[in-house]
Amino acid sequence: MKKTVAGFSKLSKEEKINWIAKEYFSNPSEAFSLLKSYWNSDEKIQKLHDEFIENTLTNFYIPFGVAPNFLINGKYSTIPMAIEESSVVAAASKAAKFWSTRGGFKSSVINTEKVGQVHFTFKGDESKLELFFAQTKAQFFTDTESITKNMQKRGGGILDITLKDKINLLPNYFQLHATFDTKDSMGANFINSCLEQFAKTLKEEASAYDLFSEEEKDIEVVMSILSNYVPNCLVRAEVSCLVEDLVEKHIPNPQAFAKRFLQAVQIAEVEPFRAVTHNKGIMNGIDAVVLATGNDFRAVEAGIHAYASRNGNYSSLSHAKIENGIFTFWLEVPLALGTIGGLTSLHPLSKFSLEMLENPSAEELMQFVAVAGLAQNFAALRSLTTTGIQDGHMKMHLNNILNQLEATEEECILIRKHFKHHIVSHSGVVDYIQNLRRQI
Predict the structure, then answer these.
(1) What burial class does residue 396 get, using C-beta atoms within 10 Å of its C-beta: 0-12 exposed, 13-18 middle, 19+ buried?
(2) Identified catalytic residue from 50, 85, 143, 271
(3) With bands split at pLDDT 50, 70 and 90, how would you rate the model's confidence at 281?
(4) Is-catalytic flag, 393?
C-alpha cells in the first residue's frame, strides 16, 4: 500500500501522529504513547519547540551536561555540552582538570570575517564587466543602507565587495564576493538580505549601463547566498608547558609521552584516514558546545572540514611541537557563531548555556568552542598514546550496554564491580549477565 497523505502540514499534531502510527506501526497506540511521553509537561515550552520546525511530532532528547574546571586566559569557566556520545564530557572534564594545573588554555580570535556571494552569468566582454563593477561598486553599499544601518551601529556591516571571474570553472560564471562583520549575531539573515539586494542592484545597473550590448545587459543571477566556509573567521586555542610537567599517573615518562603525542599529531597531518577520525574527535567537543548554545553545528562542521582540506589534502586541524623543552599543542578553526538571534534567544537551554558562560560575545563564544575542541583532542590523543582509547570509552559505554540488556539494579552493581578489573566489551557484558541470570 502506498503511504501518501495530502495536506499533512495542516493536520494537528495529534492527527499527524495518528496517521504515522496507523500507517507504519503494528501497535499504533504504543507508538502514539511513546511520542507523547517525550512531550514537555510545560505547554508553553512544548509550543515553543513545536514551532521550531514543521511537522513536529515530539522532542528528541539528548543529554545536556557540563565540563567544569576550564582555565581559559586566566579565568575559570564551566562549559555546557549537548551530546549523546558517552565519553565526551568525561574526557573534556579530565583534560580541563589536567591543564588547569599547567597554565590552562590560551585562546584568541584571529579574525571575524564572514562571506556571502551572488552567483551570476555574464555573456560578453570581461573587461567591460570589470569597468562596470568599478564604476558601480559604491551603489551596492548605498542600496543596502537600510539593511546595514542597525548592524553598523553595533560596529559591523559590509566590509568589502569584489568581482570574481570564475569562467575557468564554468562558462560565463562570475561572482560578487562580499565579506561581512556581523558582530554578536551569526548573521545569516543579515548577509542573505544584503546579497539579495546586491543581486537587484546588479541587474538594474547592468540594464542601464551604456557600454553594455543588449546581450551583456542581460545578466542572469543564479543565486544569492552566504557561505558557511569562513576561512577568515578564525580562532586559536592552545596549551603549553614544560615537557617534564606532563608527568601524571598515566604518564610516568613525560618525554616518551610527548614524543608519541607529537608523532600521533604528525600522522593525522599527513594521513587522511587518520585525520578524519582525529578531527571527528575535535568536533565532539566543538559540536557539543555549538549545539548547547543554539548555534548551527551543521554549518560549523561543513566549514571546518572544508578548512581542513584548504591545502588540497584533508589534514589535522590540530598541531603540536616540542621546542626548548616546551610542549605546545594548538588548533586554529573557522567558527561563525552568534550569541544573539535565532535559537540562542529562543531555546530556554541555549539561554541557560550562554548565561552560564556569563553572556559571552560572539568572539568569546568562539574561544570557548575552540578550547572544548582542543581539550577533547588532547584527551583522545592522551588515551591513544598511553592506555588505549577503548579502556575509558567502554567503561563509559557500560551504562548504555546495561540499559540495552535491561539489567536490574542488583545486576548493575555486580556487573560494574566485575568490570572495574576486566576489559569492557559488549559480548563480555552479555556473557557475564547471562551467567548471573542462570545462577538465579
Answers:
(1) middle
(2) 85
(3) very high
(4) yes
Q: Determine contact, residues 270/367, Cβ cutoff 8 Å.
A: no
Give the pLDDT score at 434: 82
pTM value > 0.85? yes
pLDDT (0 to 100) of residue 403: 79
223 backbone φψ class: left, alpha, beta (φ>0; ψ -120 to 50): beta
Which residue among the candidates 16, 106, 393, 397 is catalytic per the annotation?
393
The DSSP string of 120-158 is EE--S-HHHHHHHHHHHHHHHHHHTHHHHHHHHHTT-EE
Catalytic residue flag (residue 287):
no
Catalytic residue among 13, 166, 217, 280: 280
Classify 423 as helix, strand or coil.
coil
Catalytic one among 296, 347, 364, 397? 296
pLDDT at residue number 424: 77
The distance of Cα 196 from the centroid of its chain, to the nearest Å, equals 26
Q: What is the pLDDT of residue 211?
A: 97
Distance between CA 126 and CA 212 in Å, rounded? 11
Catalytic status, residue 238 = no
417 among known catalytic residues: no
DSSP for residue 340? B
Whether 107 and 367 have beta carbons less than 8 Å apart is answered as: yes
Residue 51 clears pLDDT 90, i.e. is over it: yes
Residue 268 and residue 278 in contact, taking contact as beta carbons nearer than 8 Å:
yes
